[in-house]
Design goal:
The complex is a heterodimer.
Chain A lengths: L2 E3 L4 E5 L4 E3 L2 E3 L5 E7 L5 E7 L5 E3 L5 E5 L4 E6 L8 E8 L10 E3 L3 E6 L1
Parallel strand pairs in A: 2-12
Antiparallel strand pairs in A: 1-4, 3-9, 5-6, 5-10, 7-8, 8-9, 10-11, 10-12
Chain B lengths: L4 E3 L2 E4 L5 E6 L6 E7 L5 E8 L14 E5 L5 E5 L8 E8 L9 E2 L3 E5 L1
Parallel strand pairs in B: 2-10
Antiparallel strand pairs in B: 1-3, 3-7, 4-5, 4-8, 6-7, 8-9, 8-10
The chains are: A mainly beta, B mainly beta.
């Protein structure tokens, strides 16, 4: 079955340290992978996506993610965390078996990122 | 505005009443999605509209929930005979073939409280 896993409900990082939010996926074809962020009391915002090409994708607010096909992972990273990065992060994948005209995404359960000063 | 809008932003209703939630997608976006999110939790898919195709209703939790999309634009999610477990934030999103077609743009949500 197609699925996305975010194995950590919560990640705690000290300000200034590097952060990683993990995501693994299981789809039958070539995945399209996404990260979204939800700041407190705000809507979901797109951060970055991997469709094809360079495995390292750079996005908004200094975030990046690396597509690793052999490990079926798409972990979100940032070299130096800010307190303002504290938010709920969602990983999502497009299920290629749905066909080219179906735009639905499979969503992970979300990871709460807490950056402590 | 250029983004997805939802109304009302907050709705408090008594158990057993019907409610209607509205979503205005980004102009020209062919795909529209409804999700439900309980406090601080993940996204629960409800329904998906794509152009003139039949909607994917597989996520609707019961027959008290229904949605329609008129003229390929505005969508209304209706919950009949509301129950306390319906309390959540209801999110709408839209996407477009031309603009990174799988990238979904979200509205601010409607916070529904059933008392």
């Amino acid at each position: 079955a197609q699925s996305v896993a975010q194995p950590e409900d919560q990640v705690n990082v000290a300000e200034g340290n590097p952060l990683t939010v993990k995501c693994t996926y299981s789809v039958s074809g070539n995945p399209y992978l996404f990260w979204y962020v939800q700041y407190p009391n705000r809507g979901l915002q797109f951060l970055l996506k991997y469709i094809t090409g360079d495995n390292l994708v750079k996005g908004s607010y200094g975030f990046e993610a690396e597509f690793n096909k052999s490990q079926t992972s798409f972990h979100l990273k940032k070299p130096s965390a800010l307190v303002s990065d504290s938010a709920l992060y969602f990983c999502a994948v497009r299920d290629p078996s749905l066909g080219d005209s179906n735009y639905q995404l499979i969503w992970g359960a979300g990871t709460k990122l807490i950056i402590k000063p | 505005g250029a983004g997805v809008s939802q109304s009302p932003s907050n709705k408090v209703t008594e158990k057993g009443k019907d409610v209607e939630l509205r979503c205005d997608p980004i102009s020209g976006h062919t795909a529209l999605y409804w999700y439900r999110q309980s406090l601080g939790q993940g996204l629960e898919f409800l329904i998906y509209f794509q152009g003139n195709s039949a909607p994917d209703k597989s996520g609707l939790p019961s027959d008290r929930f229904s949605a329609e999309r008129t003229g390929g634009s505005v969508s209304t999610l209706t919950i009949q005979r509301t129950q306390q477990e319906d309390s959540a934030v209801y999110l709408c999103a839209s996407s477009n073939r031309l603009a990174g077609r799988y990238e979904q743009y979200f509205g601010p949500g409607t916070r529904l409280t059933v008392t």
